[in-house]
Amino acid sequence: MEKPGKKSPAAARKSPAPAKKAPAAAKKAAAAKKTAGAGKSAAVKKAPPPKKQLVAPKKATATVRAAPVKTVVKPVEDESRTALVRRARRINRELAEVFPYAHPELDFENPFQLVVATVLSAQTTDLRVNQTTPALFAKYPTPEDLAAANPEEVEEILRPTGFFRAKTKSVIGLSKALTEDFGGEVPGRLEDLVKLPGVGRKTAFVVLGNAFGRPGITVDTHFQRLVRRWRWTAETDPDKIEAAVGALFPKSDWTDLSHHVIWHGRRICHARKPACGACPIAPLCPAYGEGETDPEKARKLLKYEKGGLPGQRLKPPQAYLDAGGRPAPPLGAG
Fold it and tell me: Where does [4Fe-4S] cluster bind (predicted)?
């Protein structure tokens, strides 16, 4: 018989059993915590749906940028310098095939006539200048003759070109400068040409490139408009445009490049309504869609100025080739 307060050996051996249950409970608690933790991590892993919602606005923005754009001055998105050079040169090659005979559209027989005609072409068309200069050069064939001319008589001849008083002052002034400083000869250096009254870098490069065969870029209104549409440069100052575009091409290409761009601007890529649907370089143009994209309607927008009425319509570029596939001379050319 066991004494009160004492446990038998068998009971003593059984008593620790409750203590063994504690680790099991702990394991269950740990497992519960793990399950809770797993639930939390699973909840965290389910977070991607909000991320997809955050990406959506970016896709919408990209869609807006991909739509046909107006003329902008930002570079083509993600276009490297190398890609820009290649695209610009390819555009020039394509235009050279469309306008293989591109040339200055001012009529001239010598450097003096060219520099005068180029000064007169400001704020008017080459066609109007070509209609005016024959009478001017017939009466004043040399710089000495024009330097000694009566301003009122010159003004009367130049009246159709607009701004005739200012132009009269310029052509008489440059004629005097040629007579007094250069022996009656047009100089063949840029630094000398820009000293003449009414002659800036644009006029100087026209003379250098077409009268002396020295490369130069002519940055007129057409050239400025197109190189910005094509995103060759974001510059707006003519001198900076000249430098930026010149850096994309070999110097030997500069003069012909100027002709190609200017011809394209006058005939196809107009300021107000470009003929995008009839443009031979449409796949290379970031501003495609700014003008008419329907091919039939776009062809009606093509223009051909020389030898006809201002704004005269023309046929597609292939019409410039003769029966043998060779470049045909410009309409009205002698």
Answer: 269, 276, 279, 285
